[in-house]
Amino acid sequence: MVITALYLADVALTLALGHFMLQPIWLGITAIFCLERFVTVRDKGIRQQLLSATMYELPFDFFLQATHAKAYADALARTERTW
Question: How many other β-carbons are positioned within 10 Å of the β-carbon of residue 65?
Fold first, then answer.
């Protein structure tokens, strides 16, 4: 969750400041994410692997990470955890 937050913050900040440029560190991290998605679905076949490597489900993944972060914050604050 921390790496994703840093990644998005970096992109948002550089876009806001007008200094966006591809940075090798983030390209490497993105490549690791893509590789992880590719390997995770290896039993589904090459077509599904290639599709998953495009990271089309990234918005849903961000939602899941935000949900986890809220759950952790609620647990730390000892607030009632309800739906």
Answer: 14
What confidence tens digit (pLDDT) does each residue in 36-55 have? 989 998 898 899 988 888 87
Tokens of residue 65, six digits? 């990470």
* Paired tokens of 4: 């994703």
What SS3 class is residue 82?
Answer: coil
Distances (CA, A) of 37 to 5, 54, 63: 18, 9, 17
Query: Residue 6 in contact with residue 30, Cβ under 8 Å?
Result: no
DSSP result, 29-66:
HHHHHHHHHHHHTGGG-HHHHHHHHTTTTHHHHHHHHH
For the whole model, what pTM was predicted? 0.55
Whole-angstrom distance, CA of residue 62 vs CA of residue 78: 24
Q: Which two tokens stand for residue 49?
A: 């692997």
Q: Cβ distance 57 to 41 under 8 Å?
A: no
